[in-house]
Amino acid sequence: MITRLAFLTVIALFALVLPGARVYAAPEATSISGPGLSHPVRLAVTDDYAFFRRINLPPKLDDEPKV
Q1: What is the model's pTM?
Q2: Which positions of the chain have pLDDT values less than 50?
Q3: Rg of the chain's alpha carbons, rounded to an integer?
């Protein structure tokens, strides 16, 4: 019993001494608003990522490049 208590105490001390994981702030939410919407719509993080990937695509070329 004492060895278990000592083991748990050592683990607790290591947990206090070792630096914890960094906490990162959540990304800022994107909201879409306009005259056709009655209120602003907030996008989920996955929708936000997909939305910006879709609107930031490079322009299509008129002629296909020769490889």
Answers
A1: 0.35
A2: none
A3: 26
